[in-house]
Amino acid sequence: MATHISRRHFLKAGMATGVAVNVTFLPPETEARLVETPPRPGPDWLDEAGQPRYRLDAIAKVTGEKTFSRDYRARNLEGWPKEQSHAFLIHATKADRTFEGIDLSMLGEDLKPDRLVLHEDLVADGITVPHPDFFGDVFLVPKGETPRLLGQPVALLIYRDFARFDAAKRRVRFDDTVVRYGERTAYNTPANYGASRYVRIGGDTPDAPDRYSPLKEKVVYGKFSGNDVEWPSPDESAAMAAAAEIEEEIAGAGDDALVLNQTYFSQSIDASAMEADNGNVWYDETSGALHLMMATQSPYEIAQVSAELVQASQFRLSAVDLKVGYTVGYGTKDHNIFPFFCVVAALYGEGRPVRLANDRYEQFQTGLKRHAFWMDNTLVVDRETGKFRAMTGHFKCDGGGRANFSFPVSSVGATATQSIYYLPKSDFSAAALASRAVEAGSTRGYGTLQSMSATEMMVDEAAELIGMDPIDLRLANVFKSGMKNTQGAIPGGALRNEEILHKAKAHPLWADRHKKKAEYEAAHPGKRYGVGYGHVQKDYGTGAEAAAASLEVTPDGHISFAHVAHEMGPGVTTSQAIMVGDILGRVPDETAFGVVDWPQMPLQTTDEPYTMSQEEEDKRKQNARWTPRFTSPMSATNSVYYLGHATREAARTLLDVMVWPAARSLWSRGIGGGAMAPYDVRRDELRLERGMVNAGGLPPLTFEQVAAEAHRLGLVTGVTVHTFNRWQWADAEFDVPGTGYLYGAIDALAVKYGDGAPADRKALMTTGGWHFVERVSVFYPPVQRNNAAVTYYAPVATLAEIAVDMGSGKVELLTHHSIMECGRQVVPDLVSGQLQGGLAMGIGHALHEYLPLYEDGPGDGTWNWNRYTLPRARDVAVWTQTAEVLEPLSDSDAPKGIAEVVMIAVVPAIANAVAHATGKRFHALPITPEKILEALS
């Protein structure tokens, strides 16, 4: 069993053959250009405090500019043919019969496709699925074989004109005679995806060394016998010996302890991103160039793997031209097979661009789902003190018919189970099972919504059973700064959950809940009132986060900014620009996001940040151009902290090497050292805001003056940095000509010199017009740190006030109040938007959303929002909800990633509120009126 368990591990990246490959794993001719970069906003974009009045992309959106990938057709893309072809897939809706072909006779002659593609065509042309252990072994079901999963495509139909395409697609939809099936068979699912186990026994105190932990020792991996996991024996494994000890302690717990065992279920859901999966791809048969316009959270991977796919086939590949628009995915457009179906369609497009875009039925049928989880939890609580003695949890999740991220999702769910609690002893395991269900992937929450919701429901029930206030029980066990998580790692920074708990306990919703219950129920006969609390902290990041960012300043002070990050909804284009402004006092004049072509960064990588041995990594890092990973997808709540770290490091470096020495030169002009000489002014007194440069009472300078001086002196006026994080930042030292030694939390650096630089220094700018400065030394966090599984957390707590109609079982959400700690907010309005949107998603998961897994589920192609219940404004207390964000400890606090955690706490808060209202506890989600009526009957 492989030892990687990262949240976003994409197995080992293969290298394209036959085409020269550089750091981006693309042919050198590759052009990766983003079309999403919005026009410059209006002059009123920033307020007096430097905060945006609206998003950077707002004007483009409200004036009808094309922004989302789905908006583009071939005629909108420069250099593309104007003629647009369209394609759709036909899907199997049975997974227990052989596929015997398709019958298109209902289309007649007029609506027959211009090109029909079957599995056998792909085989003849050498087209295979890249990374089959991740994406599955076939694109289309082979004739005579049973589909691997419900909804698996069996044929691709391409039309040269939209009218015939649209008519044919409408005629084929819901016609169950199109796909011909043969004899009944057993299910043809792949092998189960993996099982992992995390066991920890702490010392006598939280500060004492652990007796056993994954960070010190190892994670345990299991094998499968059917759907049951076989773990090593205690004689074979120290971890399993520790697990046996915990099991014995639970079995022998006396009357002074509560031993609570419960099973929980969290359902499969559809993320319901408004933009369904889509792509528009043109394969130029004449030149061999592949042009892609793709909706994806992972542009780097799409370009890389598309090159591998084509290069392995009979189709010639000379270059890859990737364009990326805005998208919305909630994880579902992260490492998804759909873009590669688009590439396949283009290869059969006869030299014309081919657009393949799901409608909503198809998105339900094939879009990545949130995993269904089954959880068996045991919690041991000291009845007198309320202290947790031990907790175990053993989970299974249904990953559907392709592996995708099911194994790491299950593992992350296990490692997140402890949430905000310190556990002296813990044993959490997770198994990711294969099935005929629609594929599940890295949907928002990544397994943690499922596991932490169960923990919070369990803690509330334990409090009731020992007669303790639920928040007091949480306070007795809260995870504090410096304590170890269930992997044995100490999280970074200050953990402020105790502060949040005290705020929640004092809030009127909680303090007055019993009084309000009596008053409300007296005034509303037939209804029951309840208040519930949920409190979670969630990791952010993948354990292998990498990014590149670039800043360049012209002599007239024009700032250009480029970044690997691209927009998928949370406002990254806005926040990254504001980060530059926070440091340089000026937001960029020109931005480019989603960039994957970095000629100034000639780095080398095999992209094995989780699986490479320490010995091998130590060898490779001697190469000053090696890095464990080049860049990360837009996922894992990684934009504001990890991707923003590259932005902040680039801006800080420019501050050190350009702004400070140029300003000092200007202030030192004149006899006797100028205005600066009489003062003792230091670098840390430098202040930049509103386009002005100030320090220690010296005459203010405009940014333009400083830029001109920097160019005159030949200082560094452009900086590109590369960063890497393995639950800790890599750092390196560089010797920059004319500047001296630089040290920073980066692992690669390229610079540009100003106009006045001497010729020998300018001659160094030979790498894409930049000077790539080879590092003098580098530190990479040890590979063993992978076992930490997480060191970065962001917490959210929610109080939910509900009423249950005892006649209908309907739950009415009256209001909710959330408390969040996210470090320093870069753009508070964006944080507020994330919280409000996340709460709506959590409310949907708790009360409304549900997908059957198998034959009556979305794989049959008949699901749409007419059958799938999403929460409406009336369901989420849109006008009465409130929230507060803890003030940062200082203005130097780092921002924390919160895009996933914001939706979780409200789920158990509602479940606990329903228990308070009805006296009945529900352990399976969603909590529907039918379940409530059944429990009350």
Describe it.
- By secondary structure, the protein is α+β, with helices and mostly antiparallel strands.
- It folds into three domains: 51-186 and 277-357, Aldehyde Oxidoreductase, domain 3 (Alpha-Beta Complex), CATH 3.90.1170.50; 194-269 and 369-489 and 497-541 and 790-936, Aldehyde Oxidoreductase, domain 4; 545-725 and 731-779, Aldehyde oxidase/xanthine dehydrogenase, molybdopterin binding domain (Aldehyde Oxidoreductase, domain 4).
- Helix content is 25%, strand content 23%.
- The protein has 22 helices and 36 strands.
- The strands form nine sheets. It has an eight-stranded mixed β-sheet, with helices on both faces.
CATH level-3 fold name of the largest domain: Aldehyde Oxidoreductase, domain 4
Return the average pLDDT rounded to an integer: 93
Low-confidence stretches: 1-36
Q: In total, how many beta strands? A: 36
Total separate domains: 3
The total count of helices amounts to 22
Write the CATH architecture name of the largest domain. 2-Layer Sandwich
Q: Into which percent range does the helicity of residues fall?
A: 25-40%
Please state how the strands of the largest beta sheet are arranged side by side.
Answer: 1-15-14-13-16-2-5-4
Major sheet characteristics:
8 strands, mixed
What is the CATH class of the largest domain? Answer: Alpha Beta
Radius of gyration: 29 Å
Give the termini distance in whole angstroms: 48 Å
- The oligomeric state is single chain
CA-based shape: globular
The SS-based structural class is alpha+beta
What name goes with the CATH superfamily of the largest domain? Aldehyde oxidase/xanthine dehydrogenase, molybdopterin binding domain
Share of residues in strands: 15-25%
Protein name: Xanthine dehydrogenase family protein molybdopterin-binding subunit
InterPro entries: Ald_Oxase/Xan_DH_a/b_sf, Ald_Oxase/xanthine_DH-like, AldOxase/xan_DH_MoCoBD1, AldOxase/xan_DH_MoCoBD2, AldOxase/xan_DH_Mopterin-bd_sf, TAT_signal
GO molecular function: iron ion binding; oxidoreductase activity
